[in-house]
Amino acid sequence: MAVELETLVEGDPAKREEARSLWGDAWRDLRRRPIFLISALLIVLLVLMSIFPWAFTDANPRKSDLIHDFLKRPDWTDFFGAGWFGYDGQGRSIYARVIYGARASITVGIFVTLGVTVLGGLTGMIAGYFGGAVDAVISRIIDIFFGIPLLLGALVLLGAFSARTVWSVVIALAVLGWTQIARVMRGAVLTVKQSDYVVAGRALGAGTGRLMFRHILPNALAPVIVVATIALGGYIATEATLSFLGIGLQDPTISWGIDIASAQKVIRTAPYVLFFPAAALSITVLAFIMLGDAVRDALDPKLR
Description:
The protein contains 13 helices and no strands. The chain has helices spanning about 1-10, 15, 20-30, 35-50, 95-130, 130-145, 150-160, 165-175, 180-190, 195-205, 210-245, 255-260, 270-300. Helix 4 (about 35-50) crosses helix 5 and helix 11 runs parallel beside helix 12.
């Protein structure tokens, strides 16, 4: 009888199933969500465009031909060719500029998100873990930065740069955009540090660094990832807005915001000059927002 019971237990798939973590459950859930698959496919395509733009077009995005290609309308039969989306007011290929413009937007979005996640995550974790006077001081600093509008503050900071490049935009947005992540991390740490395993680790003599980075951080990271993923699309839109206003990226950098600004002059006679860079920007921002929504639903046990 004992042998039979042991055989039944070993043959039960549920008994042999490995322990499932939050991240494992989230990944299994994400793979079944169409919104995640669509957004991930779009993001992979955009990243490839930013890294290997020459693989998508052989046209020169800076070459101007005012004699033959000035505001030439799209040639829908020229698939992936220089004239597929037409030419802008300076005789440059709109399709080539849309492809090459992805690099600036993706670079700004990714590095600003990394910067604010590291800066805001560390600040929020310190405030939530130590509490007391440390939390009070850091929280007031967060409130001061939070009261500065991101777009207005970036306009002021970028005015101090003599050459406004991708990295100057990244620095300006990262310096001003870390407060939301800090608040989210602080709240998550305040909740996690009351858990039994943290209390037990402290009772067993675990140091501050071990408790913060080995026990608290992995369990407080989920809401931060969700907020950072959704915010990434907002940073891309902010970069385009700054470039549109003339205070962000500048020529010779290729940016969708710069192309949208230049399209204002010919919007009545050639609306396609505005449509294609604006559509590329909208699709990019939408892809990251969709990805963030999918990740949020997968990591929130209440929505399962």
